[in-house]
Amino acid sequence: MTLFVPFAADILVAILLVATIVSSVRLSRRITRMKADEAGLRQIIGDLVVASTAAERAIAGLRATLDECDRTLSERLATAERSAAELAAHVQAGEAVLSRIGAIVANAKETPKDALKDGPGPAPIREPAPRVSVADRIATAPVAPKGVNGDRLGAALAAANALSERALDRIRARAA
Question: Range of 51's domain?
Fold first, then answer.
């Protein structure tokens, strides 16, 4: 029996040593996995930092784009308002020309045909209209804004004024 106790103690120590070795191997594997996970975690954190930096730059770019769009929209609105004002001025000038032409036509229709002929009978006496030169009419005409359409409108206005002046001269010559 004296041999049995030390032998049993040696077997028990061997079993405990094997259990210790197995648990050490398991712990070693777990530590290795944790280190791999730590490296993966560090990689993920690095990727998140890069992504957040890119997102911040993208947000700054979007803000700059938004500011530029706001400025562009403001400029276009101002241009549209100016164009609307110019168009209103053109319409008003056109209406003035049309009213002048209408007055000339109405005046021509009111003139009796007998007054235009050199026939017997007295022609009705009309008060002579004040003589206004073409230059004075053009000077008092509404000023058309400059630009492609403004130049065209100004030329049309000058031509209409000259036409109305010639028509008035013909009517006065026939009436006289």
Answer: 4-175
Share of the chain above pLDDT 90, in %: 35
Burial of 24 (C-beta count, 10 Å sphere; 0-12/13-18/19+): exposed
CB atoms < 10 A from the CB of 108, how many? Answer: 14
Q: Which residues contact 156 (CB under 8 A, 6 or more apart)?
A: 97
Residues 111-163: tens digit of each pLDDT: 655 545 555 544 454 555 555 554 555 556 555 455 555 667 777 777 888 88
Q: Are 162 and 134 in contact (CB under 8 A)?
A: yes
Angle at 33 between CA 29 and CA 34, to 5 degrees: 115
Taking CA atoms, 136 is separated from 131, 133, 161, 176, in Å, by 10, 5, 10, 23
Q: Per residue in 87-121, pLDDT tens?
A: 888 888 888 888 888 888 878 777 655 545 555 54
Number of domain units in the chain:
1
